[in-house]
Design goal:
about 425 residues; alpha/beta; Aspartate Aminotransferase, domain 1; seven-stranded mixed sheet; about 35% helix; globular
Length: about 425
């Protein structure tokens, strides 16, 4: 019988249970489902603040909303630039456009797809307002180097942690706490979920004030029915917050389980011929990489493993020789293993929308805008990156099946 791999679209792949049902009943029986007057969303914010050691946490309706709040906090003028990665969900970029700012795509480190600080540094100009880093697949980005760049140039550093719940940075701090604002997602496919939902964390009182106002239509509740600034309704409901609180209690176990089986797979693959560990290190500078960079050394038929340090394992990525990712993905899929090449159809710097007006018939402030090439990102998406779905309910049996399928692929190559 084919081994079933649990996924996050079914009960067997989630940690939803009696605790979430009881949380929903608690809210419904209270009669108050709106977080303005309820207690669940405020309690969730307090618990997230405690977990992340942040002075402020702001709950909102989605991970994309959280990113929008973070861009609002950075306060770009129309036409200002925000540097980000081309390998990410469009929810990272949409808030930049929503604030009439310009996304500038920096290339990535080919070993893991996270922003290359040197590429970011080369793009900083007079209109740059912020850097938005994504901890891709749960792997820690080179956030120390990016924070140094932000501080040097007076920029806001935003950390998109949608895929990086409890990801650890060098030194042990959590991803989301090294920048000026960190964002979290509670969407269906994340480590924990309430269907949709998001949070931001920050230690900055003013940034928190801007985000909280924007999430509630710019309404300063203490001043009565008075709207201080532009805002949208990004409020999280009490139902979302109650489920999120029940899920939050399970988060350490979810991440620990993913780390345990991911470590087993790293160990199982490590000994295979042609499989190497990625040697990416971070220091206080703009990033120092140990060992050979993935994507160099043409002709070496190697598979590069992800580095487990701090990883939260939203997905399990592999970097392969050029052109091998689609072939291995097909091989794994035929064995019943949920794997796919590239993660995205196109990196966002090549998305079709840049060829069309963004706002009605207007291109402002993107007149003449064409994102620059990002060769490392394009190579990853086109031919070298493979991702395997990961789940807290995987067992050693699942790990063995994946390792055996990769072993057989290597033997046939």
């Amino acid at each position: 019988m084919t081994l079933h791999f649990p996924n996050m679209a079914e009960p067997a792949g989630r940690t939803l249970g009696d605790e979430e049902v009881a949380a929903l009943e608690r809210v419904i029986r209270s009669g108050m489902l709106n977080s303005v007057w309820g207690t669940e969303a405020r309690s969730l914010e307090h618990e997230i603040g405690e977990l992340y050691g942040s002075r402020h946490a702001v709950a909102c309706s989605s991970g994309t909303a959280a990113l929008h709040l973070s861009v609002v906090a950075a306060a770009p003028d129309p036409g200002d630039e925000i540097i980000t990665t081309p390998i990410t969900d469009f929810g990272t970029v949409a808030p930049i456009l929503a604030q009439n700012a310009v996304p500038v795509f920096a290339d990535v480190d080919p070993s893991d797809g996270n922003l290359d600080p040197d590429a970011v540094a080369a793009l900083i100009g007079p209109r740059t307002r912020a850097i938005m880093a994504v901890h891709l697949f749960g792997a820690p980005a080179r956030i120390g180097a990016l924070r140094a760049l932000a501080d040097e140039h007076g920029l806001t550093l935003i950390e998109d942690c949608a895929q990086a719940w409890l990801t650890e940075l060098p030194g042990g701090a959590l991803a989301g706490t090294a920048g000026h604002v960190g964002t979290l997602s509670l969407q269906q496919w994340k480590h924990i979920t309430c269907g949709d939902g998001g949070l931001t964390v920050t230690d900055d009182d003013e940034l928190a004030r801007r985000m909280r106002l924007f999430a509630d239509k710019g309404w300063d509740r203490a001043a009565g029915r008075s709207h201080e600034s532009l805002g949208l309704n990004y409020r999280m409901t009490e139902l979302q917050a109650a489920v999120a609180r029940a899920q939050l209690a399970k988060l350490p176990g979810v991440v620990a389980a993913r780390r345990r089986t991911a470590a087993e797979l790293v160990e199982a693959l490590r000994g295979l011929d042609g499989v190497l560990e990625s040697g990416v290190l971070e220091t206080g500078g703009h990033g120092v990489r140990g060992g050979e960079r993935a994507g160099t050394g043409e002709g070496r038929r190697v598979i590069r493993l992800p580095r487990p340090d701090g990883h939260a394992w939203w997905l399990f990525p592999l970097v392969l020789p050029a052109g091998d990712a689609p072939e291995l993905a097909e091989h794994l899929s035929a064995a019943g293993i949920p794997a796919r090449p590239g993660y995205l159809r196109d990196p966002l710097n090549r998305a079709p929308l840049w060829r069309r007006p963004i706002y009605g018939t207007s291109h402002h402030p993107l007149e003449g805008y064409r994102p620059a090439a990002c060769p490392a990102a394009e190579r990853l998406v086109d031919s070298t990156l493979l991702v395997i779905d990961w789940n807290e309910h995987y067992t050693s049996e699942h790990v063995a099946a994946i390792a055996d399928a990769v072993r057989r692929y290597r033997a046939e190559a």
